[in-house]
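Q: May I have one protein plus its fold?
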Amino acid sequence: MNDDVIINKVAIIERCLKRIAEEYQGDAEQLRSNLTRQDSVILNLQRLCEAAIDIANRVLRLKNGPVPQSSRDSFVQMERLGYLSADLALSMQKMVGLRNIAVHDYQNLNIEIVISVLDKHLNDFTRLAQLVLTED
């Protein structure tokens, strides 16, 4: 999709993924023991989620889709309209949940869940970015 807002949000995703890679380096033990790295990684996960939500809302607006009732609903509507696969939409909805905990209940954020996301789901942001850039 050739839209400046989406292109800028994709750039944010790319930058955040790069920062996470620099801080995490696939080393879960180092992340567990280094609070500064944890803060950096979690902040960039929050930014990733915000950029993904903004992208979903922008696509829905440009395609005259329904107005989402929540951040999670943005991805539900994207799936409903055929812009996202069910697995990617569900993953993004879970990322919104993680973001909400990171923002509103930071003390109860489980680092093991963060590590699982880093190891298994960061690519979902790349998938989302690629999808919206190739969408007409």
